[in-house]
Structure formats: C-alpha cells, structure tokens
Amino acid sequence: MGEEAGAVPTSMASVNGGESRKFALPVDSEHKATAFKVFSFSKPHMRCFHLSWLSFFACFVSTFAAPPLMPIVRDNLDLTALDISNAAIASVTGAIASRLLMGTLCDLIGPRRSCAALCILTAPAIFCAAIIDSPGSFIAVRFIIGLSLASFVSCQFWMSSMFSTRVVGHANGFAAGWGNLGGGATQLLMPLLYELIHRAMGVTPFTAWRIAFFVPAVFQYLMGMMVLTLGQDLPDGNYDDLKKKGEKVDDSFGKVVYHAVTNYRAWILALTYGYCFGVELTVDNVIAQYFYDRFELQLHTAGMVAASFGMANLFSRPLGGAFSDWMAKRYGMRGRLWGLWAVQTAGGVLCVVLGMMNTLAGAIAVMLVFSFLVQAACGLTFGVIPFISRRSLGIVSGMTGSGGNVGSLVTQSIFFNGSTFSTARGITFMGVMIIACALPQHLIYFPQWGGTLSGPSSKPGSSEEDYYLREWSDGEREMGYHHNSLKFAHNSRSERGRSSEKQLHASTTMPVERNC
After folding, report:
1. Helix (H, G, I), strand (E, B) or coil at 213
2. Is the confidence at residue 281, as pLDDT, over 70?
C-alpha cells in the first residue's frame, strides 16, 4: 500500500503542534500509518501488528487445542456426546463477557496492557489440562481457556488505533486472519505433538495428550510477556504517558459505554458477526470429529482436513479486509456494506450445500470455498467497525466480538447439541441462519455516506464532523477533548468513494469546527 491523499507526506509528524517525531511509515494527522507493509517490523505500527496477531494466534491455539484430540480425550475422561457439546459451548461462552470487558479496558487503559494481562492470566488453565480427571473439570478448563478469545478485541482495537481509514481494512483483516490461523494450526499441531510424545517418547496415550497441552500454554504466556514489554498503545506512546503529557483524555466510562450501546449500527454488526465468526468458532469445534466419524478417517487425517478450514485464514480474512478497502476506494462506505452482505450471503449458501454432501471429496471442496467466504466476511465486517464510533471504538469492537461468540453459542446449542440433529443437518440449518442474519445489514445507514439502499443525506448536519462530534458535549468540546475525533472525521472523508479523491487532494487542512 502506498502513501494516500491527506496523509502527512513524510515520516515526520508533529505532536500537538509542538514536538516532532519520526515514523518509518507515512502517517495521517492522527499519526496512524497510511501504508501497510506486512513484512515490515518497523516501530510502532508494524511491530504492534505482529504482536497483535501472534498473541491472538496463541490464544486461538490454546482454545481449540482439545477438539483435534477429542477421540483420545473422550475415551480417557469417559465423555458423552452431551459432555463434548457442553465443553465446546463453554469454550466460547466465557468470551462473551470477556470480550465486552476487553473492549472497555482497551478504551480506558489501552490494548497493550489489556491483551498482555489476558494472555498471562488464562495461561495457567491450559497447564491444568494435565491434571483434569472428570467431564466437569474438562468443561471448566475449556471455559477458562476460552476467555482468552477476548484477545481478538484488543487485536482489532490496536490495529484501528495504528492504521488510517484507507488501510484499516487491510490491517484488521491480516491481524485477525493470521490470528485465526491458530484454529487451523492447532488441528495440525496437537495431533503431531501427541504422536511425537506417544510414539517417539513411549508415553501412554492418556498421558501423551496431557503433556501436549504444555506447548500452547508456554507459547501463550510468552506472547503475553512480549506484548507487555515490546508493545505500544498508540503511535505516539502508551496511554499512561500520553495522559501525563495531556495528549490523551482520561475518558468517562459511562459516556464511552453510552455512545456504544446507543448506536444501532453496532448491534446490527454484532448480530451479523455472530454468523460469520460465530460460524467459524462452531466449525472449529465440530469439523474434526465430523470427518472422523462420518467418513471414518484416521485421527491425523481428520485433523488435516479440519485444519484446512482454519488455515484458509492465511489469505481469506486478509482478502476480505483488502476487498473492503478496495470497495471503499471506489464506492465509499456503501461499497463496504454491499461487499459484506454479498460475501456473507454467498457463504451461507455454500454452508447449506456442505451439509448436503455425501462424498468426502465433495465435502472437502465445498468446505474450502465456504471457509474462504465466511472468513472473508469477518474481514469485511471489521472494515466497517472502525467507523461506527470514534470515541467508543473499544466497546463497539467488544460488542461485535461478543456477538460472534453469542452466535456460536446459539448455533452449537440448537444444531450441535449431540441429540436433536445430525451434524450434517445442523450444518445445513446453520447456512440458512447465515443468510437470514445477513439481511439486517441493509438497515445500516450513515448520514454522511449512505447505506446499501440509499445515498448520503443532503440535510444540514450530515457531514463526517457532525457525526463524530455528536459523541462530545459542548462542555467537552470547550475543553478540547474532541480534537482526535475531529481529525478522524477529516480522515474518514475517504469513505465518500471516488468523489472524495479530488476533495481530499484539494483540501488537506483540518475542517473548521462547528457546533453539532
């Protein structure tokens, strides 16, 4: 990605009109990078990118370390089908609350400490897998480990804080997509570790799977320490340091929550995210056992087939984010919304077809296309999220992330509870739900940009500045608390589409502030 119109044209940027500092990448008026160089490790933007996706990757590996070993774990702990279903549900249930909390913490104390604390505090539960001896303890351990999925929220918040509107889809897509790779990687990693420990070291099967859990536990703990020591909250520094310098507002918890929960767009995207990321979580929990039982594959072979679903995140979610940015460049926010609906709906159709497949080759082929579409829809969702609210970005991200877990909880409880439907029939019904839950996206409307069904409003008070400054009271604006929102409003003019290009080239100065 190259330098964009409206960006600070060099790597030098002024902080509050005074101190200047250098950045390796070109930046905009908020010092967010306007270029995304995925193989760079430059500080702070790209270093934080790599820390965010690696920490999320580690948490995903830990959370889904059990499913690829389920046939062995099932025999060791005498798990019933209902126990396995309850454990799968528990693994995503805890993250509903933890993601909401993570969004709040990101808004108030920053993504660095929030992410690090989560990784470090949930790591002991992974070690506890070595000592569990009952279905109840297995369910409890999966619940606690699943709390770490809230690292997704800090991941997306961090990227939205580091990268400009023009490339935020790329950054969010790559960070979340590569983090979600953990769901596929663990399908390969855990069976290989098990086989290595069992056969090469001569350890019994019921002991080998327990020892294997030490690897994801250590990895997650180390990533937490790296985020804490090497990460940085914002391009200009960490929250505490910036607050001491007067460069960041110590915001009100109540007002941050209020502006998130009263924005209907956040609720719609939380619902629809439940049937893209929620579907991904559900499939991660059921797909290995499904292929193992339905097509009588070997454990390692079933793991490899299942891994192909999660491994598609290597390119599917990043391409979803890139597609969102591409649509925005040409058609503005309306393009982002149309792209999201089309991709998610197509994924739902393929999910319906997957549940009807009777051959192994056909099931694998359909699953691969389905996995690409459902994961790309996740990337497209977080191409829109950064624009919902500037002040309450963390909580909006948390609400959306929690929506993914709620969707998975509902789907697994209804369609994969071990008794009501076969797995194949459950997959078909899940596809119908994807299609239905994508429809409310047509209700999303931004006065300054429009929605899928109509263009922007021509009424007074419908500009980007009007939209984002409504989150600040007259008193707060008099204190200057809204300045970053004003900068963001100016930078987000790119969401007007092609017509914005000439406007941005013609005017790279900050707009005159108005009462909103």
Report:
1. coil
2. yes
DSSP string, 333-383: HHHHHHHHHHHHHHHHHHHHHHTT--SHHHHHHHHHHHHHHHHHHHHHHHH
How far is Cα 90 from Cα 4, in angstroms, rounded to an integer?
44
More confident residue, 387 or 2: 387
Model pLDDT, residue 130: 86
Reading the block at residue 4, the tokens are 């964009």
Q: Is 475 exposed, middle or buried (0-12, 13-18, 19+ CB in 10 A)?
A: exposed
Note the Cα 337 to chain centre separation in Å.
Answer: 17
Instruction: Check: pTM over 0.85? Answer yes or no.
Output: no
Length of the chain: 516
Report helix, strand or coil for 26.
Answer: coil
Full 3-state SS string of 66-119 = CHHHHHHHHHHHCCCHHHHHHHHHHHHHHHHHHHHHHHHHHHHHCHHHHHHHHH
Averaged over 334-363, what is the pLDDT? 93
- Residue pair 114/101 in contact (Cβ under 8 Å)? The answer is no
Average confidence (pLDDT) over 257-275: 94
* 237, β-bridge pairs: 234
Tokens of 370: 């389905």
pLDDT higher than threshold 90 for residue 344: yes
List, in order, residues 6 or more apart from 466 with CB less than 8 Å away. Answer: 447, 448, 514, 516
User: What pLDDT is attached to residue 242?
Assistant: 86
Distance separating alpha carbons of residues 272 and 274, to the nearest angstrom: 5
pLDDT per residue as tens digits for the range 398-415: 999 899 889 988 998 888
Which of 313, 341, 319, 324 is CA-nearest to residue 435?
Answer: 341
Residue 458 in contact with residue 368, Cβ under 8 Å? no
Cα Rg for the chain, rounded, in angstroms? 23
Contact yes or no for 151/119 (Cβ under 8 A): yes
Q: What are the DSSP calls for 470-481, one per residue?
A: TTS-HHHHHTTT
